[in-house]
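Page 47, continued from p. 46.
Same chain as before, 303 aa.
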Amino acid sequence: MKWLEVALRVDADSAETVAEMLATYTYQGVVLERGDIPDVDAWDEGNIPPASYYNVRAYLPQDAQLEQAQSKIRVYLERFGYEAPVFRPVEEQDWAEAWKAHYHPLRIGERIVVRPLWETVELQPGDVEIALDPGMAFGTGTHPTTQLCLQALSDWLDPNTDVLDLGCGSAILSIAAAKLGAESVYAIDNDPVAVEAAADNLQQNGVAAQVELATGSLEEVQALSRQFDFALVNILARIIIPMAQAGLSEVIKPGGTAIFAGLIRSQQAEVEETLQSNGLEVIDRRTMDEWVLLKARRTSADT
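Result:
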């Protein structure tokens, strides 16, 4: 498949907002790279200065919706005074190679290490390693929403639980859940490209027997007549809200836990209100930059 890269530079305060907008129209994730410091890894963690601007990149499939998506992106950026984007055709192989130049091993919290397949890393006792080739699927561990979810799993997932990963992308969260002790994981995504990448990653990490992988969305999960102890929903606010209204709580066991991520601070109140009104009591919150994670509990069997 052929792709169109969308690239622009934005100030640090606007980077997360622009990334969230681009995620609405582009394909499986947005890349944010500091433009003011070419090699952040060369700095000691405590000495990295605040960012002044970011280079933002995202990808559009060259399909029948391409012109409409380009137009909407241009209109949004112009309306809010951002610079005009640059659109550049790329082949899928070029996209994959571009990822490799910027994707390196990453430690998240005390024990989770995310490693691209083409690199090696020295592990410490107790480390949980996730080895990935994300392909065109969202979920590399570099985005704040994924990091929030991985840390939440490490802190909150009880062993021997039944986990739902709704919108699994590369299956990074499913792999983490399986390696952190989940008894079983049901991973589902409505994008066949993501499901294909997820299948490869599950095999690579030796957890394919623990994780059942499917193509679909909430409707397919509801058709299973199955409930889960722990649900992961790392998507976008505009998708979380209608899912909650469509009975998402019903696939979670009474008293079970759901993690919601992919929303920014300005969307938090609306998402919380929707969850609370649809059988999911928000009991904890975490933030990273402008991104928010919500922990909710299924309140009763009657909601």
